[in-house]
């Protein structure tokens, strides 16, 4: 169970190349300053929270907590298995926080410290509150039902005994309702003050009137009282609300863990020394060292050094840009060749390109607030119910009934129409659907995202990092001798150059060769089996021409030219014979040698998923910030006819607005910072977990892993859910069509009310469970 | 039927005790890690000292 709900965490571990494996251990040897995460508590201890990777079973709890408690000074260590988080407390000053991460690593787990979000703490408090309401409502419902069943079945009951039972019910029901009904009363009050109606308004009116009438009827020694109905209604509604909240919290916790997993460390100058600090602790004005192969941790200007940086996460452009002192670089860019010293201008989330910020504000403002299905239903339903009740009272008065009887009947109408089923109809489906999506690796951020996802009829993809994998891969693996590739990949494990990291992903064993020397700017070499092996530029490998394709002399001379200037830097931008913009490195072992092409590769199932999406009747587009000649082959391979390259963020928005003007509902899938405004402008949006932080924050849902499949599943689940929501709403309508005439006729007894209400709630909930099943 | 005057409050009282016990458990954080609690039961770290005494 627990394993099934976290199936993708191990897969994620290998996803962001720069932060895992060998590079992490290198950083560990440097002083790691975690003071940002260590929070002092009132009792003189220090506490830190970590998201822990690799926790799979019960034994892990004992192992981790045991290892922590053996550390000097640790006063408390508790692993929360539900959300894979570890809290450690220690006597202030007695322990270096970095030791905690080292100890976890020594035990085979990876710990990522984080600061708990305020929103998460508030949600935890809200969850506890809801559970308390639920407990009180449940207690009251059970006890009142005990008394009510006696009244219903007690034919020989004396009127005194019945009154006693009713008063006992009132004694339980009134305080319980006053306490447990608070979430509904408050929400209804908020809606009324804003001059609108939501589902909580008829609920509040129904519950209050039912209780008031029951008290009056009891005082008049009447036979019927509706305490049980009112409380049972609250109980069912609270069950729905608690579940909905629990699901939201769970996805929130996972999103928090993923953010902690993604958080990189930056190398900050403290005087002449370099200290590793978490990116979250950076401030404007800090001086940073950015080594080759690392991502730029914050926006800044280059003080010294020159290099080439890959800004594909920012602009979608895959060809690197040369930077030197004075140049501005953005957080998320990948540093290719030289070490840079950086002066931080904006840190910690504030990092943004002006233009994108401006567009984002505009897009968010222009986004027409689509009315949620539940609110739409409430707007039709609430007035109708109240008008029906008023007409019933008026009708009975005209027909000659007493005022008392007319009002009792009208209230019975309100009780029976109290939208129990209706207010469960949509949230219940949402809970089950988000659960199903969660298991297939989609984390839903917005509550109504599922509804909007189901309405999408057009999908706009970004190319770089969305249709293609976020990290470059070897593309010509099939053309290379397998043993040679294996050897090259293992040699690549010893380098941090981005191309070597890409090649290292092909490695089968994670064990690097011993005695490897790196010649910065040229390549790596080692002696393997008595023969020297070299990996790097053509020149470094002693290759002046391509050994495999001698016919390509013209192209090779071009490669050599670039190699001569900066040898260990990719020769880029469509210089090879495929025109696919691949970067190339060379490998030589004795007299055997090969060229390895590395480029952004399509996600493994992209073609399949695109085909399936087309099968679902969706219209597909590619909008990329990359050059036309880099987009064209991708569009060709996927068979997507509508594509455009070289777009600015503003042009992307304009395109989406044009689609919207045609009446289309656009699903935007993108990961770059340049996609963020387009995501905000689209009807609904998805982004891969490797996306820029800001982009992810704009997306309605985030999908995990290397595959594109979650996009297809999200659409499929959303459509199924939407169908179930509509079914549920229709069911509620049919239920009312039958129950309301009975109530208007004055034939409703408390027993019928109780049966009808619980019956409809359970039916709707059971129907919602179908969202979980496969097609 | 006068016995009901005692029995009904007693039944409700017993229910109340259960409710209060639940609220106490909730407040003391026993529901913050439900999956973990199910697994912690299987851990036998806490019985080791007792075993060494009995042997």
Q: How are the SSEs placed, and which strands pair?
A:
The complex is a heterodimer of chains A (775) and B (55).
Chain A: H1 2-5, H2 9-13, H3 21-29, E1 39-40, E2 45-53, H4 58-70, E3 74-80, E4 85-91, H5 97-106, E5 110-114, H6 118-153, H7 159-180, H8 182-193, H9 200-219, H10 227-262, E6 265-270, E7 273-278, E8 287-290, E9 299-304, E10 307-310, H11 312-315, E11 321-323, E12 328-329, E13 334-335, E14 340-346, H12 354-366, H13 373-398, H14 403-417, H15 420-439, E15 442-444, H16 449-455, E16 458-461, H17 463-467, E17 473-474, H18 482-492, H19 498-504, E18 517-519, E19 523-528, E20 531-536, H20 553-565, E21 583-589, E22 592-599, H21 606-615, E23 619-623, H22 628-638, E24 642-644, H23 649-661, E25 666-669, H24 676-681, E26 684-688, H25 693-698, E27 701-703, H26 709-744, H27 750-768
Parallel strand pairs in A: 16-23, 16-25, 23-24, 25-26, 26-27
Antiparallel strand pairs in A: 1-2, 2-4, 2-5, 3-4, 6-7, 6-8, 8-14, 9-12, 9-14, 10-11, 10-13, 15-27, 17-22, 18-19, 19-20, 20-21, 21-22
Helix pairs in contact in A: 6-7, 6-10, 7-9, 7-10, 8-9, 9-10, 9-14, 10-15, 10-27, 13-14, 14-26, 15-26, 15-27, 16-26, 18-19, 21-26, 26-27
Chain B: H1 4-27, H2 34-40, H3 48-54
Folded structure, characterized:
In chain A, helix 6 (118-153) runs antiparallel to helix 7. Chain A is elongated, with a radius of gyration of 32 Å. In chain A, strand 18 and strand 19 form a beta hairpin. In chain A, 50% of the residues lie in helices and 17% in strands. The longest helix of chain A is centred in the N-terminal third of the chain and has 36 residues, at 118-153. Mean pLDDT of chain A is 80; it is low at 1-29 and 546-579. Chain A is α+β, with helices and mostly antiparallel strands. Chain A is built from 27 helices and 27 strands. In chain A, strands 15-27-26-25-16-23-24 form a seven-stranded mixed beta sheet, sandwiched between helices. In chain A, strands 7-6-8-14-9-12 form a six-stranded antiparallel beta sheet, with no helix packed on it. Chain A starts with a helix and ends in a 7-residue tail after the last helix. Chain B has 55 residues and is an all-alpha fold. Chain B contains three helices and no strands. Chain B has helices at residues 4-27, 34-40, 48-54. The model of chain B has no long low-confidence stretch (mean pLDDT 81). The chains are: A alpha+beta (775), B mainly alpha (55). The A-B interface holds A 1-2, 57-59, 61-62, 66, 79-83, 124, 128, 131-132, 135-136, 139, 142-143, 146-147, 158, 161, 164-165, 168, 172 and B 1, 4-5, 8-9, 11-12, 15-16, 18-19, 22-23, 26-27, 31-36, 39-40, 42-43, 45.
């Amino acid at each position: 169970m627990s394993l099934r709900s976290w199936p993708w965490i191990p897969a994620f571990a290998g996803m962001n190349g720069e932060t895992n494996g060998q590079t992490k251990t290198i950083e560990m040897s440097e002083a790691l300053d975690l003071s940002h995460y260590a929070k002092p508590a009132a009792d003189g201890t220090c506490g830190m929270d970590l998201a822990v990777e690799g926790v799979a079973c019960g034994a892990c709890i004992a192992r981790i907590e045991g290892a922590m408690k053996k550390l000097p000074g640790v006063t408390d260590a508790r692993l929360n298995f539900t959300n894979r988080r570890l809290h450690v407390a220690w006597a202030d000053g007695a322990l270096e926080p970095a030791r905690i991460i080292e100890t976890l690593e020594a035990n085979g787990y990876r710990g990522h410290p984080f600061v708990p979000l305020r929103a998460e703490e508030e949600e935890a408090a809200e969850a506890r509150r809801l559970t308390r309401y639920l407990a009180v409502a449940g207690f009251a419902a059970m006890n009142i039902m005990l008394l009510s069943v006696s009244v219903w079945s007690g034919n020989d009951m004396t009127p005194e005994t019945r009154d006693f039972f009713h008063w006992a019910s009132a004694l339980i029901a009134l305080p319980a309702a006053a306490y447990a009904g608070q979430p509904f009363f408050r929400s209804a009050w908020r809606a009324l003050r804003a001059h609108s109606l939501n589902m909580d308004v008829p609920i509040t009116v129904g519950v209050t009137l039912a209780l008031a009438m029951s008290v009056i009827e009891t005082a008049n020694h009447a036979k019927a009282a509706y305490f049980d109905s009112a409380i049972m209604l609250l109980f069912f509604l609270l069950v729905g609300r608690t579940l909905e909240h629990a699901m939201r919290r769970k996805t929130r916790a996972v999103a928090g863990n993923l953010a902690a997993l993604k958080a990189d460390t930056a190398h900050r100058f403290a005087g002449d020394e370099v200290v590793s600090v978490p990116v979250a602790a950076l401030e404007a004005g800090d001086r940073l060292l950015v080594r080759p192969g690392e991502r730029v941790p914050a926006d800044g200007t280059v003080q010294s050094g020159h290099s080439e940086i890959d800004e594909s996460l920012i602009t979608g452009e895959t060809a690197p840009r040369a930077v030197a002192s004075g140049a501005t670089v953005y957080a998320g860019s990948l540093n290719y060749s030289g070490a840079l010293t950086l002066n931080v201008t904006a840190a910690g989330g504030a990092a943004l390109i002006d233009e994108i910020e401006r567009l984002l504000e505009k897009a968010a403002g222009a986004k027409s607030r689509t009315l949620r299905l539940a609110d739409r239903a409430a707007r039709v339903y609430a007035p109708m119910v109240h008008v029906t009740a008023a007409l019933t009272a008026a009708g009975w008065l005209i027909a000659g009934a007493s005022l008392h009887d007319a009002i009792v009947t009208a209230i019975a109408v309100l009780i029976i129409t109290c939208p129990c089923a209706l207010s469960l109809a949509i949230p219940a489906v949402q809970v089950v659907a988000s659960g199903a999506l969660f298991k297939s690796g989609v984390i839903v951020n917005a509550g109504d995202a599922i509804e909007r996802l189901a309405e999408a009829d057009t999908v706009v993809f970004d190319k770089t990092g969305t249709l293609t994998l976020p990290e470059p891969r070897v593309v010509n693996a099939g053309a290379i001798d397998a043993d040679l590739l294996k050897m090259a990949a293992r040699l690549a494990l010893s380098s941090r150059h981005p191309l070597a990291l890409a090649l290292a992903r092909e490695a089968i064993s994670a064990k690097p060769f011993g005695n490897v020397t790196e010649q910065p700017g040229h390549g790596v070499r080692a002696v393997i089996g008595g023969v020297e092996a070299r990996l790097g530029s053509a020149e470094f490998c002693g290759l002046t021409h391509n050994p495999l394709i001698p016919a390509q002399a013209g192209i090779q001379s071009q490669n050599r030219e670039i190699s001569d200037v900066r040898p260990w830097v990719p020769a880029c931008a469509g210089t090879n014979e495929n025109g696919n913009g691949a970067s190339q490195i060379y490998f030589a072992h004795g007299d055997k040698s090969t060229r390895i092409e590395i480029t952004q590769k399509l996600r493994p199932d992209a073609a399949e998923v695109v085909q399936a999406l087309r099968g679902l009747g969706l219209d597909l587009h590619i909008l990329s910030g990359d050059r036309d000649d880099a987009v064209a082959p991708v569009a060709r391979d996927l068979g997507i006819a509508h594509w455009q390259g070289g777009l600015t963020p503003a042009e992307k928005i304009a395109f989406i607005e044009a689609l919207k003007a045609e009446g289309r509902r656009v699903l935007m899938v993108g990961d770059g910072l340049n996609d963020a405004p387009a995501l905000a402008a689209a009807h609904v949006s998805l982004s891969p977990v490797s996306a820029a932080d800001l982009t992810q924050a704009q997306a309605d849902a985030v999908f995990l892993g290397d595959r594109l499949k979650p996009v297809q599943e999200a659409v499929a689940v959303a459509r199924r859910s939407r169908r179930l929501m509509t079914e549920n709403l229709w069911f509620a309508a049919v239920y009312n069509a039958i129950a309301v005439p009975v109530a208007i006729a004055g034939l409703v007894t408390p027993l019928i009310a109780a049966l009808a209400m619980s019956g409809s709630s359970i039916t709707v909930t059971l129907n919602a469970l179908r969202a979980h099943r496969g097609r | 039927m006068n016995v009901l005057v005692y029995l009904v409050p007693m039944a409700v009282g017993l229910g109340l005790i259960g409710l209060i016990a639940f609220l106490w458990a909730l407040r003391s954080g026993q529901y913050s890690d439900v999956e973990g609690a199910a697994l912690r039961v299987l851990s036998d770290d806490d019985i080791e000292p007792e075993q060494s005494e009995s042997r």
